[in-house]
């Protein structure tokens, strides 16, 4: 009887061990080689994602640089137009470039200041409009009042 009792106890212990193992976490049966392969795949995936993020960032930077270059080019063009309009006004014997401010934005010229008479005021518009690159002229010149 002792032998039967011993087998029953041994069987009960084995069954308890199997049940405890079944209730616990899953045992990782992966070999060391499989674990290394999984790690390498994870690193490759992270590297590909990093490369993609870098490409997106580079494209964004290129677009921003292109926009900045366009802005600089437009500002340089506006400055050139302003300089040419000032030169044209200074060359006129009745208009004073010192009394007329020329503001240019995207080829649109604004003339602000004074002119000696209406004919000179109109001539200022004609001179400014003749400059290459001018889109529109906003003549805000006023006629000087003569001191009597």
Outline the secondary-structure elements.
Layout: H1 2-23, H2 32-91, E1 100-105, E2 108-115, H3 118-129, E3 136-143
Parallel strand pairs: 2-3
Antiparallel strand pairs: 1-2
Question: What does this entry show, briefly?
Answer:
The protein has 148 residues and is α+β, with helices and mostly antiparallel strands. The protein is built from 3 helices and 3 strands, in the order H-H-E-E-H-E. A 3-stranded mixed beta sheet has the order 1-2-3.
| Succession of helices and strands | HHEEHE
Alpha-carbon distance between the two ends: 143 Å
Stretches with pLDDT under 50, minimum 5 residues: none
How much of the residues is beta strand, in percent? 5-15%
Integer average pLDDT: 78
Share in helix: 55-70%
Radius of gyration: 43 Å
Number of helical runs?
3
Strand order of the largest sheet: 1-2-3
> Which word captures the global form?
rod-shaped
Query: Would you tell me the structural class of the helices and strands?
Result: alpha+beta
Q: Got a strand count?
A: 3
Largest sheet: 3 strands, mixed
């Amino acid at each position: 009887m002792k032998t039967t009792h011993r087998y029953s106890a041994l069987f009960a212990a084995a069954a308890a061990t199997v049940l405890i193992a079944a209730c616990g976490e899953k045992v990782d049966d992966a070999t060391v080689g499989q674990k290394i392969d999984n790690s390498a795949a994870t690193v490759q995936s992270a590297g590909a994602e990093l490369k993609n993020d870098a490409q997106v960032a580079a494209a964004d930077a290129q677009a921003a640089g292109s926009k900045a270059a366009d802005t600089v080019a437009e500002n340089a063009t506006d400055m050139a137009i302003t300089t040419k309009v000032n030169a044209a006004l200074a060359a006129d014997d009745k208009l004073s470039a010192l009394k007329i401010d020329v503001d240019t934005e995207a080829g649109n010229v604004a003339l602000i200041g004074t002119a000696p008479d209406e004919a000179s005021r109109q001539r200022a518009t004609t001179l400014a409009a003749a400059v290459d690159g001018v889109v529109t002229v906003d003549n805000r010149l006023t006629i000087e009042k003569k001191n009597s």
